[in-house]
Amino acid sequence: MRFKKLAKWFISDRPVQNKKLVLSVYLSLRFLVILTMILQFLKGDYQSVFVCTLTLFLFVLPSILERRLHIDLPDTLEIILLFFIFSAEILGEIREFYVLVPHWDTILHTINGFLFAAIGFCIVNLLNENKRVAMSLSPFYIAVAAFCFSMTIGILWEFFEWGMDSIFGFDMQKDAVLTAIHSVMLHPEGKNDAVALEGIRNAIVILEDGSQISLNIAGYLDIGLQDTMKDLLVNLIGAATFSVIGYFYVKTKGKGKVAKHFIPTVLDKAEEE
Question: ∠ CA(120), CA(89), CA(26), 5° rounding?
């Protein structure tokens, strides 16, 4: 009885007998976030405290969406969303997995593309099946809409990263070390022909006061471009993967074994009571 009351507060206003696993994951991750918040507060790291607060808010968004939209999110989708938020904010930002774990950012952006394609697919598919909406799209167009939705979210996120780096001096768009430059700006006659500088082994920065700093890296720093394009590419891969899965799900009228774990269902009045 006590479990059901707690689950009802977190998940929705409907029966929760099938949501025990989701609630267990939520409570476990919430405990870790609160513990991290306390430790960061004691260290005086208030920026990390804010990240923890944001994470706790993001954790309850799935349940808010369920209430507002009167839908049931599959357990698989909810659990992946919770782990994704925890991995991006707590492990990635505070525990510095973005720096310590190779390809951590790439993995998350791939999952992001997949998840937002699922969310976009759900939105369009729900509208497509709603009799009150004059809308009838083929499986192909639903898949394309889901793909475009995911890519749009990915692009907006890159805008956000660029803005945070430009305005507040963050480094969300991580730098890359390259050993070659191909640029028309290096052409001695100013022509539109790229001049190649290859085999770069070090870079020296000259400051306004005339002092020089050797970067001591095996090349030169690319400021964010490589990271942004890589993020969008893996977002595309994730989005395309789910779009194909969603296409066959609609094509076969809901018989797909994978898609059903990511596509919400609309609750009727009997289920909500």
Answer: 75
For residue 34, is pLDDT > 90? Answer: yes
| Higher local confidence (pLDDT), 6 or 195 | 195
Tokens for 191? 């022509």
**φ, ψ for residue 191, nearest 5 deg:** -80, 165
3-state secondary structure of 247: helix
Domain chopping of the chain, boundaries: 2-169+223-272, 176-222
Look at residues 107, 85, 125 and name the one whose alpha carbon lies nearest to residue 245.
125
Q: 3-state DSSP call for residue 222? A: strand
**Other CB atoms closer than 10 Å to residue 111's CB: what's the count?**
19
Q: What confidence score (pLDDT) does residue 2 get?
A: 52
Question: How open is the CA angle 259-261-262, to the nearest 5 degrees?
Answer: 70
The span from the CA of 144 to the CA of 267, in Å, is 26
Task: Report residue 57 as tokens.
Answer: 């808010």
- DSSP per-residue string spanning 81-109: HHHHHHIIIIIIIIS-HHHHSTTHHHHHH
pTM of the model: 0.85
> Are 114 and 198 spatial neighbours (Cβ–Cβ below 8 Å)?
no
Output the pLDDT for position 4.
Answer: 53
CB burial readout 146-179, b (16+ within 10 A) else e: bbebbbebbeebbeebeeebeeeeeebbbebebe
